[in-house]
Amino acid sequence: MKTFLWIIVFFGTFSIMEFMAWFTHKYVMHGFLWSLHKDHHHKDHKSWFERNDAFFIFYAIVSMSLFYAGANGWWYGWATGFGILAYGIAYFLVHDIFIHQRFKIFRNADNWYAKGVRRAHKIHHKHLGKEDGECFGMLLVPFKYFKK
Prior knowledge:
Helix content: 55-70%
Order of helices and strands: HHHHH
Largest sheet: none
Number of helices: 5
Structural class: mainly alpha
Low-confidence stretches: none
Distance between the termini: 42 Å
Mean pLDDT: 80
């Protein structure tokens, strides 16, 4: 029974992270921490790293704190921490590698889902400023961007 609950908590956390990504992007990154996120929309430096990468550090700290809680008896901490970690890995693969090509792999993906995710992200990035950029999660992109 505990394994079943662990799996439910893990996938529940992964799913909630999609909402958290949308919420954080819309209200924090395009809100009061725009100063960290703006170089992601308009790169004003030659470095591979962006100030925007600081958001990854925040979620990594949350995940590691939950691992610590799991190691000290709160077993939900492991499931929750791994759910956040799994979402972070998925986000990195889709957003940083697939969409932004920070590593030159997955360049030739040519299916309807891949095209829809790229199209939606391109529309978001056409706005270089803090306002007017449509925000959405990584996996639940609105269906209007998918064309078969």
